[in-house]
Design a protein that fits this description.
The protein starts with a helix and ends with a strand. The chain contains eleven helices and 13 strands. The chain has helices at residues 3-16, 27-38, 42-48, 52-57, 96-115, 119-136, 152-155, 168-172, 192-222, 226-256, 261-264; strands spanning 269-271, 300-301, 303-306, 310-320, 323-329, 332-335, 341-344, 352-359, 368-375, 378-386, 392-397, 403-410, 420-428. By secondary structure, it is an alpha+beta fold. The protein folds into two domains: 3-267, P1 Nuclease (Orthogonal Bundle), CATH 1.10.575; 287-428, Jelly Rolls (Sandwich), CATH 2.60.120.1060. Strands 1, 2, 6, 8, 11 and 13 form a six-stranded antiparallel beta sheet that branches. The protein has a four-stranded antiparallel beta sheet with strand order 7-12-9-10, with no helix packed on it. The radius of gyration is 24 Å and the shape is globular. It binds zinc ion. Zinc ion (ZN) is lined by residues 1, 24, 63-64, 91, 131, 135.
């Protein structure tokens, strides 16, 4: 949460909400970090040793305490922003590239400190990462540009008893215990480059999960239903703890260069269909990204919308030895003409990108579409297919590429039939 803001209003808050803690998720930061530390493998807890305690009780608060804890403030600062003590992006999500850069920066620092045998510094950098992940997944950090919910309260006018009260603190603060005791943390990568990128997408899940809790919490606050507030806060805090556990586990694996074979297997291929492209800046498609054909809408994952209204399964015509068959896909994207989907890819982590492209056999029978994959602005693969054609597999080399774009253009006379599908878009290591 924003410290500058806190300095200005803490006195007011004390009068209005005597129980409110002074820091962002406040006490929950500690509860969430401890829950994550509890599920780390024994060798990792031993590796942290005497730093395990302070990581859960102090270091995860470093980004909120940069003005008072001068000694540790440097562990929440970035070389790219010299002299800047308070970095808003450690509390509120910025753009995807900025968020990724912050994760990569602090992960690099933590891993380098572990490799150098400096556990104290490593644990402090890990504390900063915990804080960022927890704040991004907090129920009161969910609405871009409306951190105090002044806009949302125009949509949800408060009852008289709540009038004039700022909601940020009450939405996220409380006293609760977090436990994820049956959770096994996931390895997110065998290099910082890979792990930071996967962690970014993991925290996107945390942000979406937190968004689903904000309005129920406000409704519960308005209804003075403390139990319902905690139930929704727990939904966010539990997810945050899992994301934090994955991050800490991965950093310690990277620091020790110790990777389990079975944990590495799922990292070989990664489907990107459900990831948010850069055009979905705040993890939704703004109206400027809507396309006009084959209907007025935005890209969808896992389904195609008939006429922009009715969800249908993704389907393609596939050529096989014994003729052509129609096949349904659960992983894939349906999108319209003219709007580009851009995905950051960690450089030189994946060798290839593959995707099956084609038009939906029924909805797109009369369409004709050019499918193009660009890598850093240059075409890597392109094909033009009509509605009667079988799907084609596009397979591109990703050497040196850090951004791919999926581009669709109408090449026929019937744009309302251009139901184009990118099925199983996948980044492949080998
Ligand atoms: Zn914060």
């Amino acid at each position: 949460m924003n410290m500058i803001y806190l300095k200005r209003v803490t006195l007011g808050l004390v009068v209005l909400f005597p129980m409110v803690s002074a820091f962002g998720w406040g006490e929950p930061h500690l509860a969430i970090t401890k829950a994550a530390l509890d599920v780390l493998p024994t060798w990792q807890r031993e590796m942290l040793g005497e730093e395990l305690g302070p990581l859960g009780s102090r270091y995860c608060l470093i980004p909120d305490e940069v003005y008072t804890d001068k000694e540790n403030a440097k562990f929440a600062m970035m070389d790219t922003e010299p002299g800047k003590v308070y970095l808003v992006k450690l509390h509120l999500p910025a753009s995807q590239p900025e968020n990724l850069e912050a994760l990569r920066y602090f992960m690099t620092k933590a891993v380098a400190s572990l490799k150098a045998g400096n556990k104290g510094d490593a644990a402090r950098y890990m504390g900063t990462i915990c804080h960022l992940l927890e704040d991004y997944g907090s129920p009161s950090h969910t609405i871009p540009g409306d951190n105090m919910f002044t806009l949302l309260q125009q949509f949800m006018p408060p009852p008289d008893a709540m009038k004039g009260k700022l909601l940020h603190g009450p939405i996220e603060n409380g006293t609760f215990e977090v436990s994820i005791k049956d959770y096994h943390p996931h390895l997110l990568g065998v290099t910082v480059e890979e792990a930071a990128w996967r962690l970014l997408h993991r925290v996107h899940e945390g942000i979406i999960n937190a968004r689903s809790t904000t309005i129920p919490i406000i409704q519960a606050l308005y209804a003075n239903d403390a139990q319902a507030v905690i139930t929704s806060q727990m939904k966010a805090a539990t997810m945050d703890a899992r994301v934090v556990a994955d991050a800490l586990h991965t950093i310690l694996c990277l620091g020790a260069q110790k990777f389990d074979d079975t944990a590495q297997a799922p990292l070989r291929d990664v489907g990107i269909a459900s990831m948010f492209p850069l055009e979905a800046v705040n993890l939704y498609f703004p109206q400027s990204e809507f396309f006009s054909t084959p209907y007025w809408g935005h890209p969808r994952t896992g389904v195609v919308l008939e006429g922009g209204t009715k969800e249908m399964p993704l389907k393609l015509r596939i050529a096989q030895d014994r003729g052509v068959v129609e096949k349904e896909f659960t992983e894939g994207i349906s999108a319209g003409m003219g709007k580009i989907l851009t995905y950051h890819v960690p450089k030189d982590v994946y060798q290839r990108f593959t995707v099956l492209v084609g038009l939906h056999p029924e909805l797109g029978a009369k369409g004709r579409v050019e499918f193009t994959i660009n890598g850093d602005g240059k075409p890597l693969a392109t094909v033009t297919l009509g509605g009667e054609d079988s799907a084609q597999l596009l397979d591109c080399d990703l050497s040196g590429v850090s951004q791919i774009q999926l581009v669709l253009n109408s090449r026929g006379l019937n744009p309302k039939s251009n139901y184009a599908i990118w099925a199983e878009p996948t980044l492949i290591k080998r």
